[in-house]
Amino acid sequence: MLNTADLIWMNGEFVEWEDAKVHVLTHGLHYGTGVFEGIRAYETPDGPAIFRHLDHLERLEASSKLYYMDLPYSRDQLREATHELIARCGLRECYIRPLVYRGYGPMGLNPLDNPVEVSIAVWQWGAYLGEESKVNGVRAKTSSWRRISPDSLIPHSKASGQYLNSVLAKVESVKSGYDEAILLDDKGHVCEGTGENVFVVKDGQIVTPPQTASILDGINRKSVMQIARDLGHEVVERDVARAELPLSDEVFLTGTAAEIVPMREIDDIEIGRPGPVTQEIQRVFDDALHGRDERYAEWLDHVPLAEERRPGAGRPSTARSTPLPSRA
Asked: Which residue in the list 158, 170, 175, 202 is annotated as catalytic?
């Protein structure tokens, strides 16, 4: 069950959660013409802070560009809207979902005359694969579905319609009794999970599939690579064979929703409980998320609380207000 918040930001207005609606003929609903981001804000000693917010907004902008959608708001406007939304909803920690999509207009496969709409929702959401997954690890299977090929779609774009690929793999794994699926790329190499990047630890080296393996270049992926190198580990980007996973010393997954999750079993072959390398990176990563490690302070975008933003101002009497911010 989704933990709803009070408000959602839609095209410059704050509306009540239950009033955040779109037309049934919205283009993105029919053809998947949308892009989105998954972002998290965490409690820190200085209040809530969004993890690598601008990096996520830059990727949202890039995803939009690849699908010929001109964002009607700047990064600064979306950042300010997100801050205001979190403050108005009174959240200390939350998941953040900005969505850019083609709205109601002409029907058909040419989307260029449909308006580009933008919304931002926030809500409280625990670890995607469960809190216990971060401690005990998950069981996964190699999916019979291959990851989308760059010959057909754009793996580098976090596009709504493309996630049907992940949905098929996720349903297959759950129905077979597993927690997660691992997708191979079109060449048969390890690509990623249904919503996570993959890391392999073997003989003291950390290996992860490269961008040429049809992965989404994850923000947490890049964070973990930097943390691992700061800890003195060798990190290599290269193609990973399917058989390397069960033969590895450790395997872990990274993603904004899942955070860092060890994989304890793949295709009914035991890898083992979370190992020392995974646990070490988890500890430092958690410190970075919660503002306990000054080395990564620049990754945090602190959110002014409502009382800090507008001293003496109470909660707005209506959800709808003067659009803030306005379209670019």
From this structure: 158
Give the residue, 315 or 251, on which the prediction is more confident.
251
Compute the mean pLDDT over every residue in the chain, rounded to the nearest whole number. Answer: 93
Structure tokens at 229: 């190198």
To the query of whether residue 170 is one of the catalytic residues in this protein, the response is: no
Residues in CB range of 145: below 8 A, 6 or more apart: 165, 168, 169, 172, 181, 183
Report the half-sphere exposure of 198 (CA within 13 A, side-chain side): 35
Domain 131-289 bears CATH identifier 3.20.10.10: yes
Crossing angle between the packed helical segments 219-230 and 276-289, to the nearest 10 degrees: 110
Is 94 within 8 Å of 39 (Cβ atoms)?
A: no
Whole-prediction pTM = 0.92
Task: Report the distance separating Cα 63 and Cα 104, nearest Å.
Answer: 20
DSSP letters for 273-286: S--HHHHHHHHHHH
**CA gap 294, 209 in Å, rounded:** 29
Class of domain 7-126+292-309: alpha beta
Interatomic CA distance for residues 189 and 232, integer angstroms = 27
Q: What is the domain partition of the chain in residue ranges?
A: 7-126+292-309, 131-289
Do domains 7-126+292-309 and 131-289 share one topology? The answer is no
Backbone φ, ψ for residue 54 (5° rounding) = -65, -35
Could you tell me how many helices (H) and strands (E) the chain has, helices first? Answer: 8, 17
How far is residue 179 from each of residues 5, 46, 267, measured CA to CA in Å? Answer: 28, 35, 11
Angle between helix 53-66 and helix 219-230 axes, rounded to 10 deg: 140
Alpha-carbon gap, residue 203 to 236, rounded angstroms: 13
Q: Does residue 306 register a pLDDT over 70?
A: no
Using CA atoms, how far apart are residues 199 and 249, in angstroms rounded to an integer? 11
